[in-house]
Structures are given as structure tokens and as C-alpha cells.
# Entry
Amino acid sequence: MFRSLATGTALGILVASGALAETHTVQMLNRGTAGAMVFEPAFLQVASGDTVTFIATDRGHNAESIDGMIPEGAAPFSGRINEEIIVTFDTEGLYGIRCTPHFAMGMVMTVAVGDGVAPPEGFLEGRIPRSAMQRFEEQLNNL
# Structure
């Protein structure tokens, strides 16, 4: 009796903790509400453990993390062109994401994982094209 009660309780905790994680969807588009070559939405605030599915709605896009623009200890990711990629964000902090072929055209997005996230020092330093920089600055206003 005690063993089945303990097993049931453990199973309930596992199911409940999995139910707390959410799945978000981001479309990669040639044209969206914010203009040409965009992620929609361009900014996400998610909880640690949430999953984001990046869908290449229009052909010619991918999603990948940008070197130097992910939290320390987070694993970088890189999707293939024209393919969906599913990423679970387990490390709290700020993530800069780009579409490799359209980075120079400003196709970037920001994912903030956790509450009270602020851009770390130097987040927008480095070689970021002007149009991408403008979009990142707009996205960071959501914090």
C-alpha cells in the first residue's frame, strides 16, 4: 500500500512539473507585421524549461543562437535552412537569435528566460549589422 502511494505521488509530481513548461511557436517569415525578414514574435519572455519551436514558414530561413549573446553555461543551437528546430531554454538569461542568411537584413529576435532579466554588459557589442542592432534595441525595450 505504502509503495503504490509513494509511486503514485512521485508520478503525480513528475506529471505536474512537466505540465508547467510551455511550448511557444515562432514563425520565420519573408514579410510580417514588422516588415521584411522577421521572426514573429520577435521577442519572447519564457520560463526556464519552456520550449520554443521555430518554424520556417517561408523558405530560406533558419534560427541559431548568436555567439556572445547567450547566457553563460547555455548550449548554443543552430537549425538548418528550411527546417523546424525545437529548443528548450533551461538556462535563465537573454538569448540573441538570428537567421543566418538574413542577419544583415535585421532578421533577429530576443528570448528572455526567467523573470527580471536584464541585458548583460556587452550584450550588443560585437559585429552586429545596423538593421539587426535597431531591431535588437526595439526588442530589449520589452524587458
Summary: The longest strand covers residues 23-32. Helices lie at 2-20, 130-140.
